[in-house]
């Protein structure tokens, strides 16, 4: 099953909402430090409500530490970025994909992009709207991958 990776997330409610989505779908959630908050942050907990016991959470102290684990476990690194070249809805997902998202303000850092097998984007009709909220982007992408793989 695809996994969700957040590289340097900054806004606690976004991460809490993503954690709730991951709990509901049984999806592993990986957080790559540095984070813009403490895991005990009340806004993070509030957004995740009482679902935190159901989150398969892994924290990585650095991007390098995450990449080491990913290489051991295998699977493609799929970076989501406004600079992507593959439309998320037309892309073909595999069960062992890692769906990787950057921070709310800066997106994926170049060090993460350079390790991605593919860069994917979510199309925006309005040219003045650069991207969706991070938690929405994760949900849209995760559910499309799950739909294609028959997990719905």
Would you kindly provide a written description of the structure presented here, covering whatever features stand out?
- There is one protein chain.
- The chain is an alpha/beta fold and 152 residues long.
- It has a single domain, classed as SPOUT methyltransferase, trefoil knot domain (Alpha/beta knot), CATH 3.40.1280.
- It is built from five helices and seven strands; from the N terminus they run βαβαβαβββαβα.
- It has helices at residues 12-25, 42-48, 63-73, 110-113, 134-149, and strands at residues 3-7, 28-32, 56-60, 77-80, 86-87, 98-101, 118-121.
- Strands 3-2-1-6-4-7-5 form a seven-stranded parallel β-sheet, with helices on both faces.
- Strand 1 (3-7), helix 1 (12-25) and strand 2 (28-32) form a beta-alpha-beta unit.
- Helix 1 packs parallel to helix 2 (42-48) and helix 1 runs parallel beside helix 5.
- The radius of gyration is 14 Å and the shape is globular.
CATH architectural group: 3-Layer(aba) Sandwich
Rounded to an integer in angstroms, the radius of gyration calculated over CA atoms is 14 Å
Query: What do the pLDDT scores average to?
Result: 92
Q: Quaternary status of these chains?
A: single chain
Helix content: 25-40%
Keywords:
152 residues; alpha/beta; Alpha/beta knot; seven-stranded parallel sheet; 5 helices; 7 strands; 34% helix
Briefly characterize the structure.
With 152 residues, the chain is α/β, with parallel strands linked by helices. It is built from five helices and seven strands.
């Amino acid at each position: 099953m695809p996994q969700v990776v957040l590289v340097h997330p900054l806004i606690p409610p976004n991460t809490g909402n993503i954690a709730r989505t991951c709990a509901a779908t049984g999806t592993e959630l990986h957080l790559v430090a540095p984070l813009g908050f403490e895991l005990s942050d009340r806004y993070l907990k509030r957004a995740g409500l009482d679902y935190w016991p159901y989150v398969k959470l892994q924290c990585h102290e650095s991007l390098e530490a995450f990449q080491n684990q990913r290489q051991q476990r295998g699977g493609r690194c799929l970076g989501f970025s406004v600079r992507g070249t593959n439309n998320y809805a037309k892309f073909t997902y595999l069960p062992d994909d890692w769906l990787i998202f950057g921070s709310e303000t800066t997106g994926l850092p170049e060090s993460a992009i350079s390790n991605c097998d593919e860069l994917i984007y979510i199309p925006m009709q309005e040219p003045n709207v650069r991207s969706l909220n991070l938690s929405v982007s994760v949900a849209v992408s995760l559910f499309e991958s799950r739909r294609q793989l028959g997990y719905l």
